[in-house]
Amino acid sequence: MRRYTGNMNGERYLGNTNTLEVHDLDNEDVSNSGCQINEIIRAKHDKPFTSLLSAHSLGYDNCAKCLAGSQR
Description:
Blueprint: E1 13-16, E2 21-24, H1 37-42, E3 46-49, H2 52-57, E4 61-62
Parallel strand pairs: 2-4
Antiparallel strand pairs: 1-2, 1-3
């Protein structure tokens, strides 16, 4: 689910500046052990991206839960 809180303005991808992990909000894992997007925003670790390429170019890795292909 896309967000309009914190630094997010409806962008599809959210980077966690604390872990350098990027999440796909259109494919978010909402289980208890999932992506924890609201917590990332509350902690002010949210960085919006309009594309995965933009996030990857800044060193962000894919979330294993919502994007797969994590290199960690």
